[in-house]
Design a protein that fits this description.
about 575 residues, alpha/beta, Rossmann fold
Length: about 575
């Protein structure tokens, strides 16, 4: 088809314009000034025209338009209506061909369909009769890579945290429902421990186009986006455990070979996990394991589980500790949350933990309650000002026997004692010689290292004003760490993840800072739910997305190497 008016009148085209809503979205958020809609349904073309936009009927797989004839193309909630993947690829090919700057794609989130089905749930749109093609992040990323658009970014938009969300229905609800209603029947109350969103979004830049130029207009939308990576990664299914592998691959490509040691343990770990993911019985089993039952690494023939939550009588003690951490009005509860997630990854191989810079130690007291088979040794430097009376009070009150205390200067030569896991949370950024501190962590650990630090892009560490500001305000020797800096200190990664996300953990901190202690007690369930959204298996792309980053790595001592210094 050919546009009926002079082409230069339009700066964008809407593929599948429906009723004109996406044309309005493109003008508001994508910087468009005048758009043209194309839809194969003449009735929808008429609806779009009735709202004041220009539109025409056309076949999106056969557009006889010049290359790079408009600034951008928007495809909003259209791909899922196509008959098959080949047609979808043809539509995407047309879009990237006619767009000078970028293509913006948005559609329903289908990645969680199997996970929700195993919980007796579904998303409203997952069985709509008009949704003939369930475009997942893996499918979209693979198609874009095949089209040569490896730099396309993929995002989840608008987190769905639990089954209370109206877009979640019981599996037995009839097809084509718009949102949950009581007549759809009972649905289980579940806090999701997988990534579930409302939309899948992709921004596909043309060669040479800087997507950062969209940040201003897209800011309101960007607050609800959460990065899934690049199309070049040919994304695995959302519930595979390939994030660390993909991140390490990116870091290796950006680094000199001599900067990073071999990553044998990570490869072995991921190899084992791929076997498990490949067995559909294990995928289904692990998908429905409640949060207090963790699958340990095992053979592809079966999976073992271990109980990690304490007996029922200790739940009240944990709730009291959680409240103490929330009332601290800083990152305290989130530090505990991420340390717990990290410990769960290696729980079947850890019997002793050395905590460096324990501070008040309340987070570790909670972990000791939850992991009674692990001995926690909490340390701080000599003369540390955090009082231990809170921790000792709870140890005596709850009868906790698996916690001890000591002093440790991480810059001094380590003694002879070794631990299965050496653990530091927001410590390295306070140390001028962080490389020596990291080397000593390797020496002290005979298995794993957990390290959580502030996140920042590397360029900020060369900004004298920024450095002076963080040194004066919070005593940091660096603005923050990025994945490349972390992997140089801890090369044998098991996983690397972002934390303190702007729309989850950071939002929680802002919220509790404005609350009175009594109000926190009343709203504790809501606050804990918001906190749980900070636990994500992905990494930030830009500074405004997240304020922290953490990793689990295998120690150099376990691998028979010299400590990294």
């Amino acid at each position: 088809m050919r546009l009926p008016l002079a082409l230069e009148q339009y700066d964008f085209i809407d593929f599948g314009c429906s009723q004109g809503g996406s044309l309005a979205f493109a003008k508001r958020y994508l910087g468009g000034t005048r758009g043209f809609g194309i839809d194969i349904d003449p009735a929808k073309v008429a609806l779009t025209r009735s709202t004041g936009y220009d539109a025409a009927q056309g076949d999106l797989t056969d557009l006889r338009l010049p290359d790079a004839c408009v600034d951008f193309v928007i495809i909003s909630h259209m791909l899922e209506h196509l008959p098959d993947e080949a047609t979808c690829r043809a539509v995407l090919a047309s879009a990237v061909r006619v767009a000078r700057k970028f293509v913006y794609v948005q559609g329903p989130w289908f990645d969680a369909d199997r996970y929700l089905a195993l919980l007796g749930l579904k998303m409203t749109w997952s069985d709509w009769s008009g949704h003939t093609l369930h475009v997942t992040s893996h499918m979209l990323g693979r198609m874009l890579a095949e089209l040569g658009r490896e730099e396309a970014s993929l995002f989840g938009r608008k987190i769905v945290a639990n089954s209370d969300d109206p877009v979640i229905l019981p599996a037995q609800a009839p097809r084509n429902c718009q949102r949950y209603a009581l007549e759809h029947g009972w649905k289980p109350a579940v806090a999701f421990n997988r990534q579930v969103f409302r939309d899948l979004v992709s921004v596909i830049p043309a060669p040479g186009f800087d997507v950062q130029s969209l940040r201003g207009s897209l800011a309101p939308v960007a607050q609800t986006l959460f990065s899934l990576g690049k199309a070049a990664a040919r994304l695995k299914a959302m519930y595979s455990v390939s994030s660390a592998q993909e991140m390490l691959k990116h870091i290796r490509e950006e680094s000199r070979p001599e900067d990073i040691q071999s990553n044998t343990v990570l490869k072995k770990s991921l190899s084992r996990r791929k076997v498990a993911v490949g067995d559909s019985r294990l995928v289904q089993a692990s998908s429905v394991v409640p949060d207090n039952r963790l699958r340990t690494e095992g053979s592809s023939r079966g999976a073992r589980y271990v109980d990690v939550l304490p007996p029922e009588q200790t739940q009240a003690a944990l709730r009291e500790l959680h409240l103490w951490l929330l009332k601290g009005k800083t990152w305290r509860y989130l530090r505990y949350l991420h340390a717990r997630t990290a410990l769960k990854i290696v729980v079947d191989e850890v019997q002793s933990v050395l905590v460096i810079g324990a501070g008040y130690g309340i987070a570790e007291i909670a972990l000791a309650l939850e992991f009674p088979h692990i001995q926690f040794h909490l340390t701080d430097y000599q003369g540390a000002t955090h009082p231990r009376r809170f921790a000792t009070h709870y140890i005596e009150r709850f009868g906790i026997a698996n916690v001890s205390f000591g002093e440790l200067d991480i810059l001094q030569a380590p003694g002879e004692r070794r631990y299965d896991l050496v653990y530091s949370v927001e410590v390295l950024e306070h140390i001028e010689d962080d490389a020596l501190a990291a080397a000593n962590m390797h020496t002290l650990s005979n298995r794993y290292i957990f390290c959580l630090v502030p996140y920042a892009q590397e360029a900020l560490n060369s900004d004298p004003q920024r450095l002076a500001h963080v040194r004066e305000k919070v005593g940091h020797c660096l603005v923050g760490y990025n994945p490349m800096r972390l992997v140089k200190m801890f090369p044998d990664l098991v996983t690397i993840r972002g934390c303190y996300w702007s729309n989850a953990g950071h939002a929680l901190r802002k919220k509790i800072e404005a609350m009175e202690p009594e109000q926190i007690e009343v709203e504790v369930e809501t606050l804990l739910c918001l906190a749980s959204q900070d636990d994500r298996d992905c990494i930030p792309v830009i500074l405004s997305e997240a304020f922290g980053i953490w990793c689990i790595a295998t120690s150099a001592a376990r691998n028979g190497k010299s400590a990294v210094g």
